[in-house]
Design brief:
Layout: H1 12-15, E1 18-20, E2 33-37, H2 47-58, E3 63-69, H3 78-98, E4 101-106, H4 115-122, E5 125-129, H5 136-146, E6 151-154, H6 172-178, H7 180-186, H8 213-217, H9 219-227, H10 245-259, H11 263-266, H12 280-284, H13 290-300, H14 303-324, H15 337-345, H16 357-362, H17 368-380, H18 385-392, H19 402-416, H20 423-431, H21 455-460, H22 464-471, H23 488-499
Parallel strand pairs: 2-3, 2-5, 3-4, 5-6
Antiparallel strand pairs: 1-6
Amino acid sequence: MQVVGAMFDLPEYLAERCRLANTIQEPQGEGPVIVWLKSSLRTHENPALDAGRIIAERFSRPLLVYQGIDERYPHANARHHNILLDAAVDMHHGCKQLGVDYALHVAREGQRPSVMKTFASQASMIITDLFPLPPWKNWVKRIAKIASCPVLEIDCHCVVPLPVFGKSMDRPFRYRDATKKLRKRRVGLPWPQPQVEQSLSWDGELPFEPVEVSHLKNPDKRLRLLHSCNIDMSVHPVWKQRGGERAALARWNDFLTNRLSGYARRRNNAADPEGVSRLSMAIHYGMISVMKIVREAHEVGTKAAEKFLDELLIFREHAWHHVYSKEEPYGLQNLPNWALESWQDTADDVRTTLLSNEAFEIGNSPNHLWNLCQTSLYRHGELHNNLRMTWGKATPHWTPSVEDSLRIGQHLNDKFALDGRDPSSIAGIHWCHGLFDRAFLPPLPVMGVVRKRELETHQSRLDMDAYERHVTRLAYKQERPFIIVGAGFAGARAAQILTN
């Protein structure tokens, strides 16, 4: 079977990552090669960008890197948008250093053209980063159907490329065994730099008015831009959390140099936030190459590095390959049969407390530790991984059904977490309900034979005072008090949002 990328004379390390989204196998016309970036917002070790540069030179076409920030993605809000704008600043500078044209479109009032539909008729070829979740994968399918040129998806997220394996295994150790040779062959490989000349510029007219990067660097102009978008402004940006390629590389270098050595010992202590890399947001948005992280951690060769690699290469990539293999990755039907039967058996068990969506969102549950976890998500956009498992296993006790528990867990994670709306998010929430696990006997009320993680047990081994200080810190520098003028529901709601 011919490797798709080989059709376009790509080297093997790129060709194996490719999936052709339509049936057109050669560049068409004299238009630009469009590199459409959705989830891999970096210029270093970016397979989609590297392939675009190589193909544009090979076929003597101009090259344009396009980043579009849409209003229609799940839980579109100021928090997620702001991080994407951070990434855009670094993409602009990175592409400039490479001599590659870059254009940013932010959908907003008066600026909502169908950009990719226009490019589908203008481009000689479209290359995009493969992101296996709806709606992003559906957008690519729609463009591929109407495009008059090849539409090539390239995996930029995994060391073992999704098109190479792309299967779901029922347990992590089975994924580890099934991908052992594939992983070993790729872990230590250097990432080659494309040997290309400066790319040709496209002199055609863009179907949108590009956003000036200088506006993104100005806080007032950036805020006005966010307000012009049809997004949820009540989920505030985490101003202390800087997105983009440069911040991601700096954080990785700091962790690699100063903290990786203590990872195995410190990683499960949520009261010790610097014991982990805190790179999940940067990895989610593709602001840093996982291939680079894995290669450099592998070179360290310690037990701590080995455990860190285990999290990335087994648990994270297993989630990506699982989601890639599923048409409807969010669905209850993806749980194993034993878990589905268990949830059916406990469907009528008494839940002593049922929480509303709002109570879940603001952390108003019967348990103090869970409320602190939700405060961490709501206020800072992050939740320590070890606690996230305990947090996710509490929702079945406060919802009327497993369907509601899955829905609210995914909703809370994806709305507030900077690393949400990710294959790892889905796998994590589903793991809390039995995915990738086994049955535990004897059955318990509500949870049945699904593994339990009790909040009280976790609380007993956590320095609660230290954790509470960490999550209740301000997410921004506040110099003056907020004053709410006016009574009624709107005023009370505004005060509640600001307090939280």
